[in-house]
Design goal:
27% helix, 5-stranded mixed β-sheet, 156 residues, single chain, 3-stranded antiparallel β-sheet, alpha+beta
Length: 156
């Protein structure tokens, strides 16, 4: 099992695992997951990392159907300016590979913001810690496990 799954088990939150055969040629990991699992793409969220000018990392969890609004994330975490994090820095900080970065069970606990649209669903799907594995859980449980908060950080 992955650190993400172990974190959910340890916290004793209800969750469900979904596995699918990952296609390395898929243009979008998140949309691939939604399609492979037959899920509404608005309920499937991707984990993205952004960095401030000093290199401090922040985690944003947004629907796979949209983009991350870096200005909105900066406002939510009270940072002056953010840019997408270097993939190597993201992998090093989280312990996961790009395309399989989970908001759960990361090596370092980073400030996390879950897009407010998640509140419309009883459960959402996020990466389970590797490509081809999604974990479905309540948005509130995700925030409880990560110490995160809700904010409108997604853009269509």
């Amino acid at each position: 099992m992955t650190p993400a799954v172990n974190a959910a088990k340890k916290a004793k939150v209800p969750f469900q695992l979904h596995q699918y055969q990952h296609d390395p040629n898929a243009p979008s990991y998140g949309l691939e997951a939604a399609e492979a699992l037959g899920q509404d793409p608005a309920r499937v969220f991707k984990t993205l990392l952004a960095a401030d000018d000093a290199g401090k990392l922040y985690v944003a969890v947004v629907p796979v159907t949209g983009q991350l609004d870096l200005k909105a994330l900066a406002k939510a975490v009270k940072a002056k300016r953010l840019a997408m994090a270097d993939p190597k820095a993201a992998e090093k900080a989280t312990g996961y590979v790009v395309g399989g970065i989970s908001p759960l069970g990361q090596k370092k606990r980073l400030a996390l913001v879950l897009d407010a649209s998640a509140q419309a669903f009883d459960t959402i799907c996020v990466s389970g810690g590797r490509r081809g594995l999604e974990i479905e859980l309540a948005p509130g449980d995700l925030l409880k496990l990560t110490g995160g908060s809700f904010a409108s950080v997604g853009a269509a």
